[in-house]
Design goal:
Blueprint: H1 2-5, H2 11-19, H3 32-43, H4 53-67, H5 69-72, E1 74-79, E2 83-85, H6 86-93, E3 122-130, H7 138-147, E4 153-160, E5 163-171, E6 175-179, H8 191-194, E7 204-207, E8 214-221, H9 224-241, E9 248-250
Parallel strand pairs: 1-3, 2-9
Antiparallel strand pairs: 3-8, 4-5, 4-8, 5-6, 6-7
Bound molecules: zinc ion.
């Protein structure tokens, strides 16, 4: 997501993104030390313990908010319990600027007119939900598979019981492709020397029905045009799958609900 947001396409430039995760430089946002510090403070999680999708999403969002958000104009929005409220996405993307309402012909089918409005921020969106009680339900897995086909899809934070994994996509409709970066490696502050250690050398697959039902589905929305595309995809799925569509999407946040979750700044 960061690579796409910063439009870094060459291997050399990738070092800039990887350095955000440098464990030997305490000024970098996503070091293991920073992640562990917030995990311990907010959730009492010890190093080596399992982080569920909600916890790791909120921790990464908090670190982004503290270190990067204003520098790179990328904000994270985390919705829980299968909720998705588009007014909150618009508010963050517009950075609090009021929306211009218009009568442009295209706007009838859009969430917001992307000709008369300009976004100031891009969004990393995480939709936290459960797609079953003890194990995922078949009907929901099918819908999740469809949600993984969106152009803006960036992966599913999830796992198998007791194991955190990152699902990138589908294989043969019934298996998920995943990355498992859990290898112990020698610490080294020289990113140029250990650049390759930040990549998974291979991917694996697992049967979709064997994953943990708790998932965080992530998307990257660069601008209002991409938000409109994402909105159209969500509405299409809701019309197609009706009660089996496990995301409760609404244009407005109901007054009885609080805004999307963010944990307090820790620094
Ligand atoms: Zn317009």
């Amino acid at each position: 997501m960061l690579r796409e947001h910063l439009q870094i396409m060459t291997q050399d430039k990738m070092t800039e993104v990887i350095n955000f995760f440098n464990d030997c430089d305490k000024t970098q946002p996503f070091s293991i030390h920073n992640i562990s510090k917030i995990a311990r403070k907010e959730y009492g999680i010890l190093p080596g313990d399992w982080y569920n999708p909600s916890q790791i999403s909120l921790i990464l969002s908090t670190l982004n908010q503290s270190y990067l958000e204003n520098k790179i104009n990328l904000s994270f929005l985390i919705f829980n319990s299968g909720n998705l409220f588009f007014d909150q996405i618009i508010e963050v993307m517009m950075n609090g600027k009021g929306v211009t309402y218009c009568n442009c012909p295209a706007v009838k089918k859009q969430l917001i007119c992307d000709k008369c409005n300009n976004s100031e921020r891009s969004i990393g969106l995480v939709l936290l939900t459960r797609i079953g009680l003890d194990s995922p339900e078949e009907k929901y897995l099918h819908v999740l598979g469809e949600m993984m086909k969106f152009k803006q899809f960036k992966g599913v934070i999830g796992g198998k019981p007791g194991k955190a994994l990152y699902f990138l996509g589908l294989h043969n409709e019934s298996s998920f492709i995943y990355l498992d970066p859990h290898y112990v490696q020698t610490a080294n502050g020289d990113i140029h020397q250990i650049k390759q250690s930040y990549f998974c050398g291979s991917f694996r697959t697992c049967k979709a029905k064997n994953i943990d039902p708790s998932v965080g589905i992530s998307y990257y929305l660069r601008n209002l045009t991409e938000l409109n595309q994402f909105y159209a995809e969500i509405i299409k799925l809701r019309e197609t799958y009706q009660d089996d569509f496990f995301i409760w999407a609404s244009n407005e946040t109901p007054s009885y609900l609080t805004k999307s979750i963010r944990i307090s700044k820790c620094f």
